Amino acid sequence: MAGGLNNMKKRLLLLVALLLVIAVLFVLNLLLGTVHIPVGDVCRILVGSTSESEIWTNIIWSSRVPQALTALMAGAGLAVSGLQMQTVFRNPLAGPSVLGISNGASLGVAFVVLLSGSLGGVALSRLGYMGDVAMSLAAIVGALAVMGLILWVASRVRGNVTLLIIGVMIGYLATAIIGVLKFFSAEEDIKAYVVWGLGSFARVSGDQMVLFVALMAVLLPLSMLTVKSMNVYLLGDAYARNLGLDIRRVRFWLIVCSGTLVAIVTAYCGPIMFIGLAVPHLARALFRSSDHRVLMPATMLAGAALALLCNLIARMPGFEGALPVNSVTALVGAPVIASVLFRRRQSAAE
């Protein structure tokens, strides 16, 4: 009893510590960047007071605040999606892209971007805001189309392995079609598509940012409703059925929830890699628990913290512009997760 209370206190302290880390990283995202803005001016801008420079005000409200909010929400969404996929397939290597949904989003963008110059005569990259909206809509349509196909397959296939293989094959098929489109596209269109594929938290601003944050603020709490089913699902199909759990229905709704999160994040930010795969492992190592009542909020907070850290590194002072987010997520996360898994292996051997 005493041990259980101690573990609960430790986990609560860790959750509070993650919240503090997120707060610190969020503030640093507002303070640091290629343009130096004094701390006092940042505080005055945030509270609505007049600043000495309109440019600084524009940088804070039009660039840094939207980027920080987007990174926070996108990181949390991808981490939760990865946890749900790893639970569905009971596979530590499963991630948000395992069913090809992010590949579907990429295919939708490829059709719009790579064919716009060839068929319409005007490259989508030259259309500014309208081009960004078109890419976001294309990504959502592509991701939802693939998710619909996956759900149709899931309703007819019992085995998770079969579903996983079909998802991987859909991803390969989408990649092959994108390769063909690249071959026949203009160089400018290919460059625009490659830049989109590098991932960025800086694309979302204005009304798009408000809509993105609102969608994620609704979807993330709804994801918490799957916690009880995920705990029972981990016990195995036979035991879960004995407890009255409908395996197919739970799998269906977990895929819907995970796929929707991936579709929205990919549509607005591009295909952000690694966070969804790595963060659930980091949460399990930190909290030493397989209980999703603990893992779900822990994964959500850890994903938000890691995304804020990666966004901060991507536009640290000294870099011209910003580094690709996908490069930063791999460089930051891969060594951390490798060390976590190595330590876990060592402790299991002892």
Explained architecture:
With 350 residues, this protein is mainly alpha-helical. The protein has 14 helices and no strands. It is globular, with a radius of gyration of 21 Å.
Provide a short characterization of the protein structure.
This protein is 77% helix and 0% strand. The protein is an all-alpha fold and 350 residues long.
List keywords for this structure.
350 residues, 77% helix, 0% strand, globular
Q: DSSP helix count?
A: 14
Average pLDDT reading:
82
C-alpha Rg, in Å?
21 Å
Biggest sheet layout: none
Low-confidence stretches: none
The structural class is: mainly alpha
Strand content: under 5%
Give the strand tally: 0
The geometry reads as: globular
What is the H-and-E element order?
A: HHHHHHHHHHHHHH
Name the helicity range.
over 70%
Give the end-to-end Cα distance, rounded to a whole number of Å. 26 Å
How are the secondary structure elements laid out?
Elements: H1 2-31, H2 39-46, H3 54-89, H4 101-120, H5 129-154, H6 160-183, H7 187-197, H8 206-223, H9 227-233, H10 237-242, H11 247-269, H12 275-287, H13 292-314, H14 325-349
